[in-house]
Amino acid sequence: MNFSSKLLENAVGEFTKLPGIGQKTALRLVLHLLDQDREDVDRFSRSMTKLRNEIQHCRVCHNISDYTVCEVCSSHRRDRGTICVVEDTRDVMAIENTNQYSGVYHVLGGLISPMDGVGPTDLQVDSLIERIRDGEVKEVIFALSATMEGDTTVFYLHKKLKDFNINLSTIARGIAFGGELEYVDEITLGRSITTRVPYENSLAR
Amino acid sequence: MNFSSKLLENAVGEFTKLPGIGQKTALRLVLHLLDQDREDVDRFSRSMTKLRNEIQHCRVCHNISDYTVCEVCSSHRRDRGTICVVEDTRDVMAIENTNQYSGVYHVLGGLISPMDGVGPTDLQVDSLIERIRDGEVKEVIFALSATMEGDTTVFYLHKKLKDFNINLSTIARGIAFGGELEYVDEITLGRSITTRVPYENSLAR
């Protein structure tokens, strides 16, 4: 592209480094910012720098947080006996949005993926074992993606944790609420038949 | 959404103010930035603030520029006798990318649109007339969108400029190179028949 300004070209270049943002989109976004008041652009820029410089990871669950211990871990209304193991902060947000979970979390910071060079030591596994060793934990729920990487990670963690005297579970897999049978993939549909549940357990609350 | 951090929520909120960026996309972009080095995030932020604070509008053509007079207007290789009138800087970039135009530009900064409350006085019309009055100009090319607003603006400008001793033209409309007839809309196809050109003029150079 033929930019009339180096400043513009730089700003567009920075935006195209973001995932899923091409040059045309970047230009549209930058020109939009250029139309805003200086204070607004300043606020935009400052919010990013501030976030990057001041964000912390919860000392207990490793979720990103404004404090050394996150709000969930420091809340007295959460059940510390149940730990939900997730990949990253987005999963915490998704589960919190359901309002169905009152335990605490453990954020691994990724999934085991030999193809991407991510092994167990790159994840927050040791600190999970430490939390369990502390004795308060009664159940660990694996809430990881239903992918090869997710399954591998669950397999690995299960092997590490099975000798502790705690319950290990994974979130249920099957047909989504509102899902139409004919569009469900074969593996999910097949498994949902073999892992069928008693009718009275199946009702959405 | 249920953010685990106010800092994160702020940053996501700033991103969602950008056009076409929803909350999920904003979160993805911000978490990507959070994974980068502090210097990278700093460079990202600074490029926006710097752009907004230091950008100028060319004193002659009103295109955005790093200098008081833009590179096109100050170039000795551009023909100052031909002015191409466009809506905004994106159009200048698009035309520059064709490498087919060696004249100069005039950026209106918008199109006449009574529905959006944009009248001729909101656009750089007076300075265009002044440039023509200065005497060097031989041709004005209208390169505006083929929309109601674009047509209205051309109509207005034509009325203002028709008494000057200069050529007024608009960029050609018709079927795009590579376009298939059956997918062309009826108006474009009909007009392209009534405004047909001699064969030897129609060849793409």
From TrEMBL, chains A, B:
Transmembrane regions: none
Q: Which InterPro entries match?
A: DNA_Rcmb_RecR, Rcmb_RecR, Rcmb_RecR_Znf, TOPRIM_dom, TOPRIM_RecR
Matches recorded under CDD domains: TOPRIM_recR
- Domain of life the protein comes from: Bacteria
Zn fingers (C4-type): where? 58-73
Molecular function (GO) terms for this protein are: DNA binding; zinc ion binding
Cite the entry's keywords alphabetically: DNA damage, DNA recombination, DNA repair, Metal-binding, Zinc, Zinc-finger
- Gene Ontology biological-process annotations: DNA recombination; DNA repair
Which PROSITE patterns does the record match to this protein?
Answer: RECR, TOPRIM
Looking at the record, the residues that make up the Toprim domain are 81-176
Keyword Cytoplasm in the entry? The reply is no
Q: What does this protein do?
A: May play a role in DNA repair. It seems to be involved in an RecBC-independent recombinational process of DNA repair. It may act with RecF and RecO.
Could you say which protein family the record assigns here?
Belongs to the RecR family.
Output this protein's name. Recombination protein RecR
Taxonomic source organism: Mucilaginibacter robiniae
Give the gene name.
recR
